[in-house]
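Incident review: delayed structure delivery

Summary: a single-chain prediction request sat in the queue longer than the usual turnaround. Root cause was a stuck worker, restarted by the on-call engineer. No data loss occurred. The affected request and its eventual output are reproduced below so the record is complete for anyone auditing the incident later.

Affected input:
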Amino acid sequence: QVQLVESGGGLVQAGGSLRLSCAASGRTFSGYDMGWYRQAPGKEREFVAAISWSGGSAYYADSVKGRFTFSRDNAKNTVYLQMNSLKPEDTAIYYCHALAPGSEVWGQGTLVTVSE
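Output delivered after worker restart:
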């Protein structure tokens, strides 16, 4: 199965932007549907966005729709989450997720902190 490594988290002011990356290694990446989830302090992990294995379809949580864009580059084995107009409530650890028949993988997470 694939291994996932996220990067791109950090501290940003409200209204700013960040781009998260999730690089995959191991078996064929293109066969996986990919997703981003996040977990804020004291809260459960929640869905943020998902993208089909082809990149043709993307889905977003209502809370991020219109602000976040999920894309993938299968040639680079990498997915990206472009986050614009960030809000303090977007502060969380963001986890990359890969799903294929018989295989589910999580990354280690990257911290995003949005200040007032």
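Verification: The mean pLDDT is 94.
Action items: add queue-age alerting; document worker restart procedure.
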